[in-house]
Amino acid sequence: MLFIANRYVLVLFLNEACDMLSPQERLLRNLDWNLLYTFITIVDESSITGAARKLSLSQPSVSNALKRLEDHLGMQLITRRKGEFSLTYQGLRVYEYASSACGILSHMAEQLSEDEEAVQGEINIQVASHIHCPPFDRTLAQYHQLYPDVLMTVNTYPSVEIVRAVAADELHIGLCNKKISQTGLRFDLLGYEQLAFYCGSEHGLFGKTELSLDELSGQSYISFESDQPGEGLSAIAQLRAEQALWGKLVAVSSNEEEVRRLILAGVGVGALSVEGAKPYVEQGRLWQLPPYEHLPIAELYLVTPDNIPLSDAEQRFVAMLRQNLQTSVHELYFASQQV
Q: What domains, with CATH codes, occur in the chain?
C-alpha cells in the first residue's frame, strides 16, 4: 500500500511539474522524433505507402504515426482525400523545420560515427638516443598521416632501461640495442648501425690523416652508458679492449646529443653512430678517427611485450613498423631479383 501511495504522489508531482511548463517547453519535452522522421519520409515519398516501404513498416503503423503527430501538435499536416495528397500550410512549416533539424542531426550522427571509427588515444615510445632507423622514421610519418588524432610521445632512454620498462609493463613500444632472453618479451631485429670514433675541431687529432690505432691510446674518452660489455653498445667496448684503446674516462652520458656536444667541445674522443655524425663531419666540426674499416656494429631491436595486449593505437603502430621493416629489407636485398 505504501508503494502505491508513493507512486500516486510521484504521478501528481510530475503532472504538476508538467503543468508549470510553457507550451513551447511542453512541446519540446514530449515531442517524439520518430513521429517527425516518419512525417518527413511521408512527404518525401509523397504517400503513406511509399513511406511504409522505405521505413519497413506497415501502412497502418505509418498512418497511426501521422495521426499521433497531428494530435500532439493540434493541427492537420496533410490533406488526404481520394486522389489528393498535399501539405497544409501548417504541414509545410512543420516539414521545413523538421527537415532542417533532420539535416543537423544527420550531420551529428555522421560526425559521431566517424569519431567512433577513428583511431584515437596515445602511444608512448622510448628510443635509445643514438638509434638511426629509416623504417622507424617512415612509420612515424605514415602513422601520423593515417591517425592524426593519436598523440605520440617519444622519449630517449638507455637501452637497458627500455627493456626493463617493457618487462615491467610500464612501456609497450621500445627501440634499443640490447636483447635479452626473457619470457614475455619479443625482440624484432630492425637492422644495424655502424659506429666510429670522432674528435672535435678543438682536439689535437682533428684534421690529421693516416692516424693509427696506437695514437688513440691514452686519449681522454667520452662514453655512452651502454658502452659496456654485455650492454647495447658492447661492440665498442669489445673493440677498445681488443685494440687496447684505453684512456682516461672523462665523461659519460646516455644521450647521443650530449656525447656529441662533449666531443665537439674538445673534451675528448668518443664513438658516435656514423649516420648521426655525418652532417657534422660534412660541416667540418667532427673528424673521424681510426679504425676506418671493419667498424663496430650495433644491432637495432623493436622490443614489445609478448603476453600483454596492446591498445588498438599501439597495435597499428607496431604492425606498420614491422611492415616497413619488411619493405626496407626487400628493397635493400631483393629488389634486383624482381623480373
A: 31-116 (1.10.10.10), 125-300 (3.40.190.290)
